[in-house]
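Sequence decides. Our protein:
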Amino acid sequence: MAAEILRSREESARVVPVELFFDLVYVFAVTQLSHLLLSHLNAVGAAETLLLTLAVWWAWMYTTWTTNYCNPDHPVLRLTLTGLMLAGLVMSAALPQAFGERALWFAGAYVAIQVGRTLTVSLAARAQPIGHTFRLVLVWHVLSAALWITGAVLGGAAQLALWVVALVVEYAAPWVGYRTPFLGKSTTADWGIDGGHMAERCQLFVIIALGESVLVTGLTLAENEHLTAATVVAFVVAFLGSVAMWWVYFDRTADAAAEAIAESDDPGRLGRSAYTYIHLPMVAGVIVTAVGDELAIAHPLGEISLGTALTVLGGPALFLAGHALFKRAVFGYVPVNRIVAIGVLAAAGVLVAFMPSVMPPLVLGGLATLVVAGVAAWDSVLARRPSPSVVGA
């Protein structure tokens, strides 16, 4: 069974329907996260949403690594993915009350996902080289599981502290090669992933996040009982903002990065840095932007609040910062246009902080959309230059 469950590396791995079916759970999770931030738009709410976003992303990302190594259509993996979907639904449903009465539900579901998946592959591929890596991962997940469950039981400040430590443990693990006493460690050279599959899976999660943004935009307009010209304009601006982020990510970079990781001498290293870690700020940026869009559509000409300003400007800035880091990791340079764009968004934030009445949400949203669209247009112009060395310079 061990040999059968692993993907063949003789041909490129494909994303298969069961993986797309699995992703449906995370459409719900992303929706829950954006609504959680919207309903708790303060420092505590933002911190809690960030922590939960890190957990949701990590649960999805480890499954992506698993289906990169293992054949998702194998009966064992299909049953495993089905169980992960069920646990993922419980985890997602518990998100709004993860720091309240449903803390144990969230922690239990998350631990079941991480430990259950890793244990299954550790046993199924025990005779294969990758089985050793999964056994190391299992040790780290069991360690963090104790922190998740204990935190959920204790509640309050102890819960927050233990969950932060659990995430620190989990996010640090790949960087130290899952070093474990008596079992050794693993290196990125051992992680012989299919780069094209990894890139495609992460592209699909970006689509999930953008889909949530479009969904929020449409629902906010549909639920508005008093449509005005300003509301409609804010709706159009929000939609164009989603299009602009899609353009920045998918127009040229996504395919070029997929080729780069597929041809890399150490695809595991790029899979860890460019996709596992660096895609997170891009996804988070899209989620934050969706919250800003909803606020701007609901009150396009109202007085701008701190929360509105931070989401409308901070979401695109976070997305562009993540994309700049992505290009640095894959291509070795940081595009100047991203830095300029983030600077413009930061300057607008300072202006609004001192003069909140100078720009209503509609105008601020329009500025953010123009900035992201400007980056996309700049990329397109530079890409037409004959020398590839100046692209994004």
Notes: Residues 170 and 230 are 45 Å apart (CA to CA).
